[in-house]
Amino acid sequence: MKLQLTCALLLIAGATWAQSNLEEKREAYGKIAQSGTKEQKDAATQELLEIAKTTKSESELEFANNFLYRLGHQDSADSLRSVIAKKFPKSVTARGVYIQDVFYKQEGAKAKEKSYNHLIKNWPVDKTASDNVAYDYVIASVAKSFADEGNKEKALYYLDQMNERFWRAQGYIPVATKLLQQGDTVAALPLIQTAINDAEYYINLPKEQKDNKAGFAAVGYPGYVSQLAEIYDAQGKQTEALQLIERAIALVPEQAPRFSVTYFKGLEAAGRKLEALQQLEILYKQGEFTHKENMKALYTGLNGSDSGVDAYFTRLDGEVIKGIRDHIKEMEAYKPAPAFELLNLKGETVSLASLKGKVVVLDFWATWCQPCIRSFPGMQAAQVLYENDDDVQFLFINTWERDKAYKQNVVDFIAKNKYPFQVLYDDQKDAETGEVLAAKYGVQGIPAKFIIDKEGNIRYFLTGSTPNVDYIKLEMRELIESAKKPYKG
């Protein structure tokens, strides 16, 4: 009865499409895509395919394309996307196909410029539209290519064409960084300052006016400020650098740890040795040990000798481990891990059942996921730590790939970086649920890591990561050693 009702509702939705509210439809299909049963998803898929066959409406086709993709039917979605682009050559979909399939395949600034000119000729920018950030991605790419080739004038010209204030720092900062590498600080400074100004504009908006755009604009703020402070520091303007950092910390105190490296330099230059050491302690407690020699020098200077420095670091090391143990308590879980049989890069089947008796570390990742990739050196260090422990197995589950040639892309990526990882392809859909493994594990974002104990139970689940190699290694050790112990509830 439930399935019949679901199908009936979907069929009615198709019949009365023109009269119904599109947002309501998106909400209904969104719930099915996210948490519907296999029967509901199958019914939704059939309805979407029927809409794709019969409708002449661009909006309906785009709706069907979007939800076919979300329901895991990428091939059908890609085919429909091509159909939309042909039927509606001036549509947003056609524009997206051109950007993805033509523009991003261009090499060199001139080729990209020519492709961009074709884009705006055939799909002119509408200043009143809400999706102009799509053009900004393209403009930023053109500007960066000209900067890479040393054509500053063209790079700056294209940056000036950007449409969305909340996003333009994503174009400005890469060009500014390239200009700095080329020794052109004069041209780079205004770009960085503009990025800072934009971020501060959104940070200072009243709470009721803040939205996703504001959050996106503000997320890079600590990096922009640190980059400008580094320039001031190199120019001998330590006072200006320190003022800049302290102003930023006052504005976003929750982001204070992200300023610690630059703040330390400014404090040290200003003779504020104790405060400088305290900033390095913040970094140390986060598992960043690269400033240990600076800490020793500051400690010795403040105390008049190096007596007690070993005890000082022993205490800090204890705080690091305690912090990690407190942190991983938040990641605790205890439930049976969904079974799987997936192929590795050699075409061999690897199953969870075959690993019973081992602690298994699953790391869900994709080649396009920068946080995943940034965490890999740390994960490699953790794997090396356990390379002689037969009771521990690391598996790197490649999922959510967007390119049809994903298998070769994965092989090339692993070979290029010489990662000694056991990689499995998450492309086998469950016969009953129609889900890939990431969905069965409840993965909402990547990187996502699961620590499974010897009895096959998930003991820890964590998302996101840090590029800090030492911290990842320490964290993984604590997670794995805890999972080796019997569960106490």
TrEMBL record:
<dbReference type="GO" id="GO:0006950">
    <property type="term" value="P:response to stress"/>
</dbReference>
<keyword id="KW-0732">Signal</keyword>
<feature type="repeat" description="TPR">
    <location>
        <begin position="222"/>
        <end position="255"/>
    </location>
</feature>
<dbReference type="InterPro" id="IPR013766">
    <property type="entry name" value="Thioredoxin_domain"/>
</dbReference>
<dbReference type="InterPro" id="IPR050553">
    <property type="entry name" value="Thioredoxin_ResA/DsbE_sf"/>
</dbReference>
<dbReference type="GO" id="GO:0016491">
    <property type="term" value="F:oxidoreductase activity"/>
</dbReference>
<dbReference type="InterPro" id="IPR019734">
    <property type="entry name" value="TPR_rpt"/>
</dbReference>
<keyword id="KW-0802">TPR repeat</keyword>
<protein>
    <submittedName>
        <fullName>Redoxin domain-containing protein</fullName>
    </submittedName>
</protein>
<dbReference type="InterPro" id="IPR011990">
    <property type="entry name" value="TPR-like_helical_dom_sf"/>
</dbReference>
<dbReference type="GO" id="GO:0016209">
    <property type="term" value="F:antioxidant activity"/>
</dbReference>
<dbReference type="InterPro" id="IPR036249">
    <property type="entry name" value="Thioredoxin-like_sf"/>
</dbReference>
<feature type="domain" description="Thioredoxin">
    <location>
        <begin position="331"/>
        <end position="485"/>
    </location>
</feature>
<dbReference type="Pfam" id="PF00578">
    <property type="entry name" value="AhpC-TSA"/>
</dbReference>
<dbReference type="InterPro" id="IPR000866">
    <property type="entry name" value="AhpC/TSA"/>
</dbReference>
<feature type="signal peptide">
    <location>
        <begin position="1"/>
        <end position="18"/>
    </location>
</feature>
